[in-house]
Design brief:
With about 150 residues, the protein is an all-alpha fold. The chain is about 65% helix and about 0% strand.
């Protein structure tokens, strides 16, 4: 069986693990603020992903991380973050960790970001450098990776 190596699978793995960890030490918790902050982060992350997906579809470029892009998207939400979909994924993960009071799962957030960077972002940026050398260099200089 071939493993599906795409960011949503990594997010799902982290979410399942976070949910499981939320039951390990229920006496630990973030407090009442996490009950409302968590859903706000989840909604914000989904909105960020939706905006980025809409812009990429509008530019007729791929959403699949292992494929070569046909366009460099730099407008809209992409003028604030080079990776708004991955940022949205991290916000969803953080929001659900907060909502579930999964204090033990907090290390999953930097671990998820590291995996996404190592498995996807580095390779995507290399393809963008090769496909749009001067445009990507200017974009990278003007726009942060995350926020």
């Amino acid at each position: 069986m071939k493993v599906i190596d795409i960011p949503p699978v990594w997010l799902l793995i982290c979410l399942v693990f976070a949910w499981w960890l939320s039951g390990i030490a229920p006496e630990l918790g973030f407090g009442a603020w996490a009950r409302w902050a968590g859903p706000i982060l989840v909604i914000g992350g989904i909105a960020l992903m939706a905006a980025a997906i809409w812009q990429m579809n509008r530019a007729k470029t791929t959403l699949i991380p292992h494929q070569d892009p046909s366009a460099l998207v730099t407008g809209g939400i992409f003028q604030y973050s080079r990776n708004p979909i991955y940022l949205g994924d991290a916000l969803v993960l953080t929001g659900l960790i907060l909502r579930w009071d999964a204090v033990l799962a907090v290390p999953l957030i930097p671990a998820f970001v590291w995996v996404i960077h190592a498995r996807f972002i580095r390779h995507e940026e290399r393809r963008l450098e090769e496909g749009f050398p001067s445009e990507f260099e200017a974009y990278r200089a003007a726009t942060r990776r995350w926020i």
